[in-house]
Design goal:
The complex is a heterodimer. By secondary structure, chain A is α/β, with parallel strands linked by helices. Chain A is about 35% helix and about 30% strand. The longest helix of chain B has about 30 residues. Classes of the chains: A alpha/beta, B mainly alpha.
Chain lengths: ~300, ~250
Amino acid sequence: MPMVRITDVRKAYASGLEALKGASLDIHEGEILALLGPNGAGKTTLISTICGITQPTSGTITVGGHDVVTDYRGARSLVGLVPQEINLEPFERVINTVRFSRGLFGKPKDDALLERILRQLSLWDKKDNRIMELSGGMKRRVLIAKALAHEPRVLFLDEPTAGVDVELRRDMWEIVAGLKKAGVTIILTTHYIEEAEAIADRIAVINKGEILLVEEKTALMTRLGQKELRIELHEPVDALPAALADRGLRIEEGGQVLVYTYDTAQERTGIATLIREVSEAGLVLRDLQTRQNSLEDIFVGLVSKQEDAA
Amino acid sequence: MNWQAIRAIYVFEMSRFFRTLLQSFVSPVISTSLYFVVFGAAIGSRIDQVEGVSYGAFIVPGLIMLSVMTQAISNASFGIYFPKFIGTIYELLSAPINFLEIVLGYVGAAATKALFIGIVILGTSALFVDLSIQHPLAMLAFLVLTCLSFALFGFIIGIWAGNFEQLQLIPLLVVTPLVFLGGSFYSISMLPPVWQTISFFNPVVYLVSGFRWSFFGFADVPIGLSLLAIAGFTVLCLAIIWWIFKTGWRIRQ
């Protein structure tokens, strides 16, 4: 049984906007799943529907086997949510808002646990500060502390690093890695591909309310990944020699570099033949480089394919 | 029932009250004192007595009602509107709590604050005039019921309001006039007959009258009617809240 099971969920708002069009997805216990998609793809709607902020128009969602609508208490007590916006009461003190969150989820007071969470997030020194006295990064940590205060088994992070500086983003990734180690299942939405690439175990791509693909990150990158071979020449060429004309080569950097794109999944990549042919054509190699396509290329490819199909 | 959650909301809301203790405590004391100076001393010197009670003492129940009603409404409406306004409502919606628990937490806290202010005003009044309470239990019951029912009403306003203007609209345009015209500072019998008749359409008249009865033993309307009015108002608010709960109106999309 997956930790979170989303089955054919549709969500239409009163305005007529259909934010989710039959999304299905299983999230396994203990994994980090990145929900990747452009702005307006339905990421936040999907999370909100799992967490109970909106109700699905149709379809079912279970968390730990509890249906989020009919058994919302069971489902929601397992879930922690870190929203995208910094939604905090400015005049409240850090420790009070974290205590409030724990109580709201029906858990008895446990100051030792809250201290551990606040220390883990480097917030302990700030526990008596008012929220408005904190920096943006600190506020984001407070949101995480609030979400963790009731010891959730599943944590949703909605764009945790949107508008956050590079250093804080690294911190955030470390925090997420630490939570995973503690056994928490983590779902994060992002439109930063590097983020998904850096920390996720699996990646789900969502666009226009549909889940286009769910894959292990590494499998995804090898399955769809293409590689580029860059051949740097000793002498620049103006045009490709006739013998190489139909090999699909691209000339770059003023004739200094030939670029060959190939699929790593194919049995024969054609590299050996190509290099032999380059030599036979009388070109002298200076250097060779290969470059793995980034997730970004895969992502852009998928999204544009969906748009072509539409 | 998620009692921890109700407690958490209650404690959180009360902490807002204690954080602004100066404002919460001092402002009713000052405004009550002002009313005594203006109404008690200036007007009271001309009116002298109403049905055998000094004018200063006569206005005490109305004064308490005025503050309790407006405070219960503003505390409850602000309490639930503020999370909507700044976005922290997400936490209430994603927590394993139901609407009843949310209502109990917010309305309970708002009613407690209003009750506290009512008692402060009663205490302050005792410094200015001689007060005797003929039916202390009835007085307390009226006070608590008014706090609760107007906190419920405030909660509904807070759910309904889409901006701060709307939040102020009903208290300002409906409640304050009704309370001022509800016999807080005069006996209905002092009015010309036409205005007496009109006054009986004002629900606040019944509340103030019943509350005053618990102090002095006389009233503008029979005490049974007053009880009926406050019970009816409470039931109406509960029904609206039940409907909001059933339909999820203005809360969950």
